[in-house]
Request: fold
Amino acid sequence: MSKQKRERNVLAFTGATALAVIAVNFAITAFKRRHKKKGSLDASIYLQGSIVRVNLSAAEILKLADKIVSKSKEVHDAVASVPLDKVTFMNVISPLAELEAQQFPLVQSCVFPKLVCTSDDVCKSSAEAERKIDAHMLSCRINNNDTVRYVDSMSMLISNREDVYRVVKAVAATGEWVSPEAKRYIQSLVRDFERSGLNLTISKREEVQRLRDQIDELSLQYVRNLNDDKTFLLFSEADLLGLPPEFLKSLDKAENGIFKVTLKSHHVAAVLELCKCAFEPLKVGRTRRLVAVAYGKRCGGINLSVLESLVELRHKFARLLGYSNYADYALDLRMAKSSSKVFEFLEEISASLTDLASRELLMLKDLKRKEEGELPFGIEDLLYYVRRVEELQFDLDFGAVKQYFPVNLVLSGIFKVFQDLFGLRFEEVLDAVVWHSDVRVFSVFDLSSNDLLGYFYLDIYKREGKYAHTCVVALQNGALSSTGARQIPVALLISQIQKDIVGHPSLLRFSEVVNFFHEFGHVVQQICNRASFARFSGLRVDPDFVEIPAQLLENWCYESFSLKLISGFHQDITTPIKDEICKSLKRRRYAFSALKLKQEILYCIFDQIIHSADNVDIVELFKHLHPKVMLGLPMLEGTNPASCFPRSAIGFESACYSRIWSEVFAADIFACKFRDGLLNQRVGMQFRNNVLAPGGSKEPIEILSDFLGREPSIQAFVDSRAECSL
Reply:
């Protein structure tokens, strides 16, 4: 086959004055882009070094899944056949490492189409292929912590192959370490096999699997119960005073014309944030309270029982595997390492924010007294009065702010910031095979050496049937083969932005701008990794660490200098966003953050206690913790937060603290290294080489301490909240 010609659009711009030209360049590129070739061609025809396959037909996806399973069995069988007295790194570990590196992009080629494809047949085949691979590997699951990130590392290796475990353990016993990273890799293999119970007797192993199945089923049942809840409340239009007309139009009505408000989160949030007090003195705040109580009662009896059973089974599961409780099992793979460290962290943050949170609460109580009279302030009033104070304190019209963020200009600005900061260059690959005409593909080069670092796909425009949230998916992980050849990383950024319509440019809400910056941080995190093993590449890092780079980069959205690089009035992009708007956005960022964090810490402590102790009375625990953490505010009478807290049931069990953890470390890095030099490439390159490049190949606390020149601290996090206090 003749080599296909590739055309690239070079985005090698320098200096803020180039931004207007860049934005036009983006628009011209979108207009001039060639018609992309259809069919089931391998993307590697166009993307040198990528083995990700895109635009596969339904039949080809299933055929590829069969090949993945066949190859996996072949390699595992070969490794298992090595005599225990003949094991070496090269005949046992190297084949498994290369299998992980080579299989991951092929597995993702089967799985990711269900997130982006509009064809029902392709989506069904993608889901079927995932089930087929899952059945073979036993632990192949998409890790979905609100966003789709990656397929679990053990999904490339069969976790129940005792014969493979024996030879891997034999290599570990020889102490034959090719490098410190290779030692870490071998230890991670042994650990993962043993976390699957392969070091136990057959009967105990069967018990581990039985418990795992029960835990999975109960976790799903807890969430199903919440999803299936059809409860609604009836309110008159007067009861819903303050809610916008478009919201009222979206509500179903009962036969008498009364509005039905469901207990789905978008209905509840709207009422709690926007519903004003009624005119009648006896009905002041009544609607908010009724909705808050009903929301806190959801699935009260059934889900409390489910959660109690879940926690009991998790403790049994962890103890079979040699841990004292489930928290120890869950935290063994995380930076925090132990419950005592998590409790210490949460209590230190909570105590440091108590004075600020008390002042915030007093401000809210004073405003409620002015508007509603001498009525007690309840937890149901929090969102409403936070919004009211923000309205009074900040001169921000988010509809007007949106006019400064046309999507093409925001992308141009993000590219500039990341290029200048991390020494990168982006080029668009115009003829790459893609799954939809809206999808764009970019090469990423090192600015000084011109070395190709990786690729990323942008699939950002709204499409029916597409994954509904903004996220980054790792399609291919970086790795070093046994021959020394480097496999380059490939990422996919998915979003659901309204496309430009003639006369109506696509504009981003400010929250979407921040989200874009965050997710593009994950793209760079994936691309800039230089780990030798795919298992440690890109987003394959400690779960407590994975969000730190992206949360760090959100800070650029709140500094006037960088805000002006990514914005411009849509009718005249040379008109920058106003300084007053920049200052208000920054001040508003942490408005009432201490009080909001206290509420989040409450749930984190609850989650940690139930997973580190036995026989906890879940209902009484919440009643005890609520006023203690929330500055005396009692739990709403009759509610049961534990029955409608899915993060503790599935996905974040014993790890609810992790978001705050990563935000604290991100704040420390920004204050220490970047605040006074937003585009300081020397510091940016240090971050790229010393934090992003190692990935999971080193302990994250070691990576951060080396970069900061000291152990991480909570002080910058606490100070940033105090600086922006009202």
Q: What stands out?
A: Confidence is low (pLDDT under 50) at residues 1-45, 139-155. The longest strand covers residues 452-461. Residues 296 and 639 are 5 Å apart (CA to CA). DSSP finds 28 helices and twelve strands in the chain.
